[in-house]
User: Which sequence fits this backbone?
């Protein structure tokens, strides 16, 4: 598939089949993400691959709206920013996340972006707990790394 075909084909998918995604494919997607440009070449984006169904289910609970689809995905890549490397970690994560979604499409898989950074867990509590704190605790993310988004990955439901 050429680049313009990937751009035209990419769209968000929220329902996935039970077909597993090979670890080699997930690793290849992360390798693509690692080539994304970053501010002052800081390479401040980091990636966690989540394949465990219980963890995907728990991750789907990070927000009461918009994250439930993670429970049905075969995998997710959590994109993290290292705020100790640059103050532009958010921008760098956005670029890396776009590379992930394009790579997923090029490999005949589908994806959906689930925002973490700046999002509350519960819509009815705008000043309440944050999705970022939930994900950091759930995944044991070390200090200085900030969860930006989770990208659900799988084959589309037939």
Assistant:
């Amino acid at each position: 598939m050429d680049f313009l075909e990937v751009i035209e084909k990419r769209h968000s998918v929220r329902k996935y089949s039970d077909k597993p995604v090979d670890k080699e494919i997930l690793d290849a997607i992360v390798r693509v993400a690692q080539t994304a440009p970053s501010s002052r070449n800081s390479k401040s984006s980091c990636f966690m691959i989540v394949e465990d169904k219980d963890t995907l289910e728990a991750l789907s609970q990070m927000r009461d709206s918009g994250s439930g689809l993670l429970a049905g995905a075969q995998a997710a890549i959590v994109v993290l920013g290292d705020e100790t490397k640059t103050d532009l970690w958010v921008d760098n994560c956005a670029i890396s996340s776009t590379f992930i979604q394009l790579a997923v499409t090029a490999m005949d898989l589908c994806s959906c972006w689930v925002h973490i950074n700046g999002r509350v867990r519960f819509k009815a509590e705008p000043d309440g707990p944050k999705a970022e704190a939930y994900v950091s605790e759930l995944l044991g993310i070390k200090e200085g790394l900030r969860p930006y988004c989770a990208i659900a990955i799988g084959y589309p439901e037939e």
Summary: Strands lie at 45-50, 75-82, 110-115, 145-154. The helical segments are 3-9, 23-33, 53-59, 89-106, 131-139.
